[in-house]
Design goal:
single chain; 423 residues; TIM Barrel; 16 strands; 22% strand; globular; binds zinc ion
């Protein structure tokens, strides 16, 4: 008689020892966000150890009670700091080509219209994406995601929005779905067909909105191509009432929503987002008392994108006001070729402190737990037991204030995603 074969599950155990400070953010896996001032008090353990089993956090504690157990790998952190891996809840990572040729024009003070006339602006990226084959676009995405992993980004949202027609929006979303199983990070796909009105529909915007709500959104929902639907609710792009139509359609087809809001003026985007129960409203450089009041009472996350304000020399979002009014604040990179050609969340951390006066601990919570909540993903964003072992080991620092203080240095030493070192 043949012996019955049982599958063998090999448990790989790793232990990190001698951690100066282990920032779990929260010990309780059922705490999904910290709001307002509590963001400045993330849970941490001094002189700690951490055990990882396969791809998850298994246990942790103080070195005072450390018992050596059988493990496959011991990593002596030599008094480095460990924080959860960054979560980037707002990116436009999938684009073809770059727009560095606009740099000198920008420095010389050319207007956006002049830059567009010279072959720049969002529509130049749209043209490039339309003429780029799916395979090439996939390679492009891979190349950036690899760099993002090494810079500490362990989960990434990616938007479409450079196709602006059925065929090319679907192409972008398909590429994101194909990237999901081949990169170490967790990815989330967002349909942003409402990024801009395509040139073809300049004088018939209602037809494009119908195309979005009656053709694209139903198809995307049926095929499972996106996790979220986003809309650019700004003057010159989509009005508040047009945005409502798009979000209503997303709701109807069971997709969660987010909004680009209040970057250039009081666009009504915050009101639209809160009304449609958006997971987040993003940008928020221009906020009035009404908008802050809405966010103070809401579980819609206020996602701030300081690299965009830095690159465009805009006023920064009023982070302190949001924190003082008990909003749930998160930070993201807005990585895109036109207004934030940087995916570096470590730099976002520095800008959040130096330019928006967020405390280093508040910014850390915003880049991890709260960013995960902006994607409603409860598997990432903290080092609670049972969550993915996504973490960053930082060396040569013994407190988080050194991050904005030595703003020209990068203290990231190693990055782990789902239990595996990626650098
Ligand atoms: Zn954006």
């Amino acid at each position: 008689m043949k012996a019955k074969k049982f599958p063998i599950f090999v448990v790989m155990k790793k232990v990190l020892t001698n951690i100066h400070t282990l920032y779990l953010i929260t010990e309780n896996p059922n705490i999904y966000f910290l709001r307002g001032k509590t963001m400045g008090e993330p849970f941490s353990i001094k002189n700690a150890w951490l055990v990882i089993e396969n791809e998850k956090i298994a246990n942790y504690g103080s070195m005072d009670n450390f018992v050596v157990e059988q493990v496959d790998e011991v990593i002596d952190c030599e008094q480095g700091i460990v924080v959860p891996g960054f979560v980037d809840s707002h990116t436009h990572t999938l684009f073809a080509g770059t727009r560095d040729h606009e740099m000198v024009m920008k420095l010389k003070g050319f207007s956006y219209e002049e830059i567009t006339k010279q072959g720049g602006g969002i529509f130049s990226t749209v043209e490039k994406v339309r003429e780029t084959a799916e395979e090439k676009l996939l390679e492009h995405g891979l190349q950036y995601l690899e760099k993002m992993a090494r810079s500490g980004t362990t989960a990434v949202e990616i938007k479409s929005g450079y196709g602006l027609d059925f065929e090319n929006e679907i192409k972008m979303l398909r590429v994101i779905q194909r990237l999901k199983p081949i990169v170490p990070q967790t990815l989330y796909a967002t349909f942003l067909g409402a990024h801009a009105i395509p040139k073809k529909y300049k004088h018939h915007r209602e037809i494009y909105i119908q195309e979005l709500t009656q053709r694209m959104i139903p198809y995307i929902a049926a095929e499972g191509l996106a996790d979220f639907v986003d809309v650019f609710c700004e003057t010159g792009f989509f009005t508040a009432s047009e945005s409502c139509k798009i979000l209503e359609s997303a709701h109807q087809y069971g997709l969660k929503v987010k909004v680009h809001a209040n970057e250039l003026d009081l666009s009504g985007g915050v009101q639209v987002g809160v009304k449609w129960n958006a997971v987040s409203v993003d940008h928020l450089e221009c906020l009035g008392a009404k908008e802050i009041e809405l966010l103070q009472n809401s579980n819609t996350v206020a996602t701030l994108l300081p690299t965009t304000a830095f690159y465009l020399r805009l006023n920064y979002a009023p982070a302190r006001k949001l924190l003082e009014n008990n909003a749930i604040v998160s930070l993201a990179s807005d990585f895109n070729p036109g207004t934030s050609p940087s995916f570096n969340l470590y730099f976002v951390w520095i800008l959040a402190c130096l330019q928006m006066k967020m405390l280093p601990e508040e910014a850390l919570t915003a880049l991890t737990l709260n960013a995960a909540y902006a994607l409603r993903d409860f598997q990432v964003g903290s080092l609670a037991k049972g969550k993915y072992a996504n973490l960053i080991l930082m060396k040569s620092i013994n407190n988080l204030s050194k991050i904005p203080y030595f703003f020209g240095e990068n203290f990231i030493h190693k990055v782990m995603i789902k239990g595996k070192w990626v650098c």
